Amino acid sequence: MGILEGKKALIFGIANNKSIAYGIAKRFKEEGAELGFSYAGEKMEKRVTPISEELGGKFCVSCDVNKDEEIESTFKTVKEEFGTFDILLHSIAFAPADALKGRYIETTRDAYNTALETSAYSLVALCRAAEPLMNKGGSVINLTYYGSEKVIPNYNVMGVAKSALECSTRYLAYDMGENGIRVNSISAGPIKTLAASGIGGFKNILDFIERNSPLRSNVTIDDVAGTAVYLGSELSNKTTGEIIYVDGGYNVMGIGL
Ligand code: 0WD
After folding, report:
1. Which residues line ligand 1 (CB under 6 A)?
2. Would you state the pLDDT for residue 201?
C-alpha cells in the first residue's frame, strides 16, 4: 500500500514531462494519491491535458494564478470533484527573460512586479483559496532555489522572488497551522527544465554543481519527488515552515574548487 493512499493532491506548475511538478505528480500517483491538475491558462491546455490523462487526473482545469477569477473557478471545481483535499503542490515561477540575465540593478518595475506576483504572491492566493477545503494534517509544498539566499549571477529578480516565497512559507505555516495544515518549501538544486532554460549560463551552473556539491552530482525530478512524498505524508506531520534542501548538499559548501 502506498504511503499517500487515500490522499487527494492538487497540482500546480506542470509545463511538460520535464517539469518538477510532473515528477512529483507521478510519484504521488505511485504512492496511491488521487490527483487533480491545473494549467497556466488556455495556451498550456494541450500540454497538460495528456499528462493528466496519463496520470489518471480526476480533473484538469485552467488556472493562471495571476487571475483571481481563475483561482476561484479552480477551487469551485476542487470542491465539486474532491470535496476536501490533502496536498497542494505549488511549482510555479515566472520572470521575463530579460530580467534573468545581466545586472540585477537593471530590473524594471514591471519585471519585478511580474516575478514577485507570479512566483511568490501566487502561493498566498492559492493557500487562501485552498484553506477552507484542506483537511487537518494537510500539506502545502512549494519549490524554491538557493538564489534566494546567496547571489547566483543571472538569477537576479527570481532570487528576490524566492526570498519572498520562503518568507511566505513561514508566515503561512503560522496561519494555516491553526487548522493543522503544514507549509514547507523544497529548495531544489538546478535541473534542466523549461523554466531553467530561461536563466543565463544555466549549463555552467549544472557543471559547477556536479564538480562541487558534496554528492558530486546534479539532482533529478525524481530526487525532488521523494522529498515531496515525505512532505505530503504523515512521516513529516510535525514539520512546517521549513526550507528542505534537495541539492546534493551544495548549500553547505563555502567555496568550490
Ligand atoms: O533548476 C530548476 N529547474 C529549479 C526550479 C531549481 C529550484 C527550484 N525550481 C522551481 C522553479 O522556480 C519553480 O518554482 O521549481 C518550480 C517548477 O519549475 P520547473 O519545473 O523547473 O519549470 P517548468 O517546467 O517550466 O514549470 C514552471 C511552470 C510554468 O511553466 P512555463 O515554462 O510555461 O513558464 O510554472 C507555471 C507554468 O506551468 N506557471 C504558471 N502557472 C499558473 N499561472 C504561471 C501562471 N501565471 N506562470 C508560470
Report:
1. 13, 15, 19-21, 40, 44, 63-66, 91-94, 118, 143-145, 188, 190-191, 193-196
2. 84
Tell me, in angstroms, the distance from the centre of ligand 1 to residue 92's CA: 4
Nearest CA to ligand 1 atom 25: 195
Give the residue ranges of the chain where pLDDT is below 70.
none
CATH number of 8-245: 3.40.50.720
Which DSSP category does 199 fall into? S
Nearest to 24 by CA among 141, 147, 131, 198: 141
Identify the residue whose C-alpha is closest to ligand 1 atom 42.
40
Say which residue the cell 487533480 belongs to: 36
H helix intervals, the chain? 20-30, 45-54, 68-82, 109-116, 122-130, 156-177, 202-212, 221-232
- Cross-strand partners of 86: none
Cell readout for 93 is 515561477
What strand order describes the sheet that includes 182-188? 60-62, 34-39, 8-12, 85-90, 134-144, 182-188, 243-246
52's grid cell: 493528466
- CA 154-156-158 angle, to 5 degrees, is 115
Q: Could you state, in order of their start, the residue ranges of all structural domains in the chain?
A: 8-245
Question: Which amino acid is located at 146 in the chain?
Answer: Y
Q: Is 145 a catalytic residue?
A: yes
Task: Count CB neighbours of 178 within 10 A.
Answer: 8
Nearest Cα to 139, choosing from 60, 236, 61, 6? 236
